[in-house]
Task: structure prediction
Amino acid sequence: MKRKKILIIDDERSLLESLDMFLTEKGYAVQCATTAAEGFEKSDYFNPDATILDIRLPDMDGLEVLEKLRRNGKKNIIIITAFHDMDTKIKAVKSGAFEYIPKPIDVEELEKAIDRAMKHW
Result:
């Protein structure tokens, strides 16, 4: 059985490293990107089964990234953010986010969200 693939797009390198290690240990193939531009590029060739996306990126708003990924046919996009407010959460869900998780990330909550996303599609 082929390993499920997860793309993480977040400019916080320490978070990327810890999520990469955690998800790799759980058996996923993981790719990381620190900018929206790098995320789009990796999304195209890596073709992830799920994407973990920060709402604040240095080169583009995360909601715009979410919308563009959805237009490109990507599903299972989990939004993570340290700046959570109800307005942003509603916009993210309306734009097609599968899940919305506040930082600091509870890895068990994230793992459950990924499991739900993988079963959903």
